[in-house]
Amino acid sequence: MFFVLSKTLGLLALPTNFMIVLGLLGVVLMLTRFAVFGRRLVVAAMLLLAVLGYWLIGFPASYVLGLRTALGATGIWIGLSLGTAIYAALLVLRFLRLSR
Q1: Of 93, 13, 90, which is closest to residue 54 (Cα–Cα)?
Q2: Res. 1: pLDDT tops 50
Q3: Is the dihedral of CA 13, 16, 21, 26 positive or negative?
Q4: What's the pLDDT score for residue 47?
Q5: Are the CB atoms for 73 and 19 separated by under 8 Å?
Q6: CB 2 within 8 A of CB 19
Q7: Which pLDDT score, from 0 to 100, does residue 29 have?
Q8: pLDDT of 77
Q9: How far apart are CA 90 and CA 70, in angstroms?
Q10: Measured CA angle at 74 (ends 27, 89), to 5 deg
Q11: CA–CA separation, 4 vs 96, rounded Å?
């Protein structure tokens, strides 16, 4: 178990498997961003995909899973992982569509 915040701020336990998922998704995002920029994707389209993945899916999922269920901090990290996965999938789909 890895601890993010100190005891004075409230202890958030971050399971290492979520850190691994976020790390791998971060690598996919980085590689896909570079590949998509090479294909001349408009930055506004990338911003729209990020808003869709993080703010319209990831943030509400984190709120619901973390604060409205018994999952607590784990639910927040599941929601963040979900948003990052959606954003990575959207970038990969965009890249595949542009590379046809």
Answers
A1: 90
A2: no
A3: positive
A4: 78
A5: no
A6: yes
A7: 72
A8: 85
A9: 30
A10: 35
A11: 36
